[in-house]
Amino acid sequence: MKIIANLTWAYTLLVLRVPLSLLFNMIVPLAFFMIYAVAMPHPGTSMADILIRLVALGALSNGLFGLSINIVVLRERDILRRYHLTPITTAHVVISRLLSNFMLFLVIIALEVGIAVTWCGLPVTASLAPAIVILCLGYFAVAGVGFIVASIVNTVGDCQIFNQILFFILMFLSGIAVPLEALPPAAQGLSAYMPPALSIVASSLVMKANIALSTVWPEILSLIVITLVMLTVSSLMFRWDKDSRVTWSDRGKACLVLIPMIAIGMWLNASGRFKDHIRPVTTVAPSASIHVPAASN
């Protein structure tokens, strides 16, 4: 634990000193929030919806660009090779790196919630904390994807290409850029395979309808499984040396991580509960029951 604590602190200082990491970890999420939530009007959209989607966007930016690029930079500069000469293991690096970025993510959440409450009139209810817990689970799942990217690329340029492709796919199919209920049925079915969509759907139900976490257990279980699989595989594929190149065959083997994601998406679509949860939820009092209106044709 002492090694993890020391590495976490060192990585946190490193992120704050590297302009590219600081940009994607803190500045970009806060800039999006200030422009989209504070400066722009949103008739017909609740502040809870805006907050959830922008927090998910911050998780996407932090988990992909802020995490994976930093690991590749450390590997290219032979810093990881020096770590390998010490009693530091792969698990130490992965866990400490994850905790470091997660702490920065919590700072962003605190700032965004504070701005939403003081400037934008977001009501503080008992459901706010459970919704944040779900969004944190969504962050861990996205961070797992970021670790996988760092494991299958050889250079920072390759990492940026992979991240940009994943970023736009996840942003438009997860309900961040466009609300999930506004997407066609086929796209809603695809969103069941996207970790950010699971966190957005579950946290929206909890925060807007004041329902128990047990109601959205399929989404929560799915996020936990995705996180564990991603982190385990990325730890096994972790490379210390920049001269250890990844081939397309290795990348093909890494695609095995898609198997649980595909299985989870098929399960959520087959059960029908996920699409029911996507439907617009009306805000109710804490003592009221959840109301999910039928989707209009």
What does this structure look like?
This protein has helices spanning 2-17, 19-39, 47-76, 79-84, 90-118, 128-152, 156-173, 185-191, 195-209, 217-236, 248-254, 258-271, 273-278. By secondary structure, it is mostly helical. It has one domain. Helix 3 runs parallel beside helix 6 (128-152), helix 9 runs antiparallel to helix 10 and helix 10 (217-236) packs antiparallel against helix 12. It is globular. 42% of the residues are buried.
Short characterization:
The protein has 297 residues and is mostly helical. The chain contains 13 helices and no strands.
Question: What level of helicity do the residues show?
Answer: over 70%
- The overall strand count is 0
Please give the domain count. Answer: 1
What is the averaged pLDDT score?
Answer: 80
Taking the alpha carbons of the first and last residues, their distance comes to 55 Å
State the oligomer. Answer: single chain
Uncertain runs with pLDDT below 50, 5 residues or more?
Answer: 282-297
Q: Figure out the total of helices.
A: 13
Specify the biggest β-sheet.
none
Which descriptors would you attach to this protein?
mainly alpha, 297 residues
